[in-house]
Amino acid sequence: MSPDNIIPIEQPKPHSRFAGTPMKSDLVEKASEVVSDPLVLINMVSKRVRQLNSGRSPLIPTVPSMGAADIALQEIIEGKIKLSGEGVNM
């Protein structure tokens, strides 16, 4: 197949109300002091980002430069989101 016959298929990008930049490493470091297991931290942030992108309101004051992952990390740092035996509590 020649390159002329290949039609690129663009994947739709997920829409987020939070247009910020990728996660800030200082927030990741601070959040990892609260949740020491990296896999648990990733899962917590991932679940919260999905919630934020589906319309849930942030639990902290935000600025336009914050992305959904930054908001989730800051919520973890401030103790607004905690891990319990039954899952993530807010």
From TrEMBL:
GO terms for cellular component: DNA-directed RNA polymerase complex. InterPro entries: DNA-dir_RNA_pol_omega (IPR003716), Pol_omega/Rpo6/RPB6 (IPR006110), RPB6/omega-like_sf (IPR036161). The keyword Cytoplasm does not apply. Belongs to the RNA polymerase subunit omega family. Keywords: DNA-directed RNA polymerase, Nucleotidyltransferase, Transcription, Transferase. This is DNA-directed RNA polymerase subunit omega. The RNAP catalytic core consists of 2 alpha, 1 beta, 1 beta' and 1 omega subunit. When a sigma factor is associated with the core the holoenzyme is formed, which can initiate transcription. Its EC number is 2.7.7.6. It catalyses: RNA(n) + a ribonucleoside 5'-triphosphate = RNA(n+1) + diphosphate. SUPFAM superfamilies: RPB6/omega subunit-like. Gene3D superfamilies: 3.90.940.10. Signal peptide: none annotated. SMART domains: RNA_pol_Rpb6. Promotes RNA polymerase assembly. Latches the N- and C-terminal regions of the beta' subunit thereby facilitating its interaction with the beta and alpha subunits. Residues 1-20 are annotated as: Disordered.
